[in-house]
Amino acid sequence: MLWSQSFDPSKDLLDLTSKVILVTGGNHGIGYSTVKHLARKGAKVYLGARNEEKGKAAIARLNEEGIAPENAIYFPCDISTPSQAKQAAEDFMSREDRLDVLVNNAALLGVPGTPVDQIMMVNHFSTLQLTLSLLPLLKKTSEELDSDVRIVAVNSMGHRLSRGADSNIQFKTFEDFNKDFSKDRFPYFSQYCFSKLAILLAMTVLQKKLATTPITVISVHPGTVDTFSDRLSLSRIAKFLTGLFIASPDVGAYNSAFAAASPLIKADPRKYKGAYLNPVGVFKEPGANARREDLQEQCYETTEKYLASLGL
């Protein structure tokens, strides 16, 4: 497989016993593999999924792969709307008294069939609401001696492509988040890239707001990952070629696992605060729009106002 890689979570992560981790969108693909990598090191990992049947089926698969039941636990986590995201956070805090790592993995992809108006809602607004609602527990955990609390946001190189690279972007009003891209050649992809830029901007500001805390916020690009061939009827040759150029979900989750639990980050947290990482653990300057401080502040402030208008 043409995938340059020197990180192996089975060897490079230390024992994670006593750590509590929540991975959203954990029933499939990168999320599932992230749960597996972290649970294998002894963490208590909550597999967040909105569909109970799929979530519990994922837990069963993990158990079949040797993950102990106490290390991988299904958690109902529907972030279709910000209010549902807040409810999920409250449900989590009612059952756990600590949270060491939040991995925001859940996202809607920019593919035909996806409700275009939901892509920004899930990928940005609801993801940020879940994070903000869990902050009290994350902060509480970070106050403990020798704590290592992290927020990991699975992003994409898409934030620098298509509408994510539009130099005329602004986020001054809620309407700015919901542009009509129907005339674009690939409107779903345009909306996806736009949403990934928005959440990257917001996470950058969140790290600044958490400057006085030990909490580390990291955004990661997983690389080009095969999260589809198992659901398609591909020939053996097609699957072989896919494997040559595209990483499996297990390998695609390495960057998430690194950001969530690598001891290198604990050894030098200042270096990683607010970082954007390419696989695996490689510092990468994000796209031009993501580096614009005016967009960062616009995006965060307008998002806060919108969430407040919902009573959240």
Automatic annotation (TrEMBL):
SUPFAM superfamilies: NAD(P)-binding Rossmann-fold domains. It comes from the Eukaryota. Transmembrane segments: none annotated. Keywords: Oxidoreductase. GO terms for molecular function: oxidoreductase activity. The keyword Oxidoreductase applies. Pfam families: adh_short (PF00106). This is NAD(P)-binding protein. The lineage of its organism: Eukaryota, Fungi, Dikarya, Basidiomycota, Agaricomycotina.
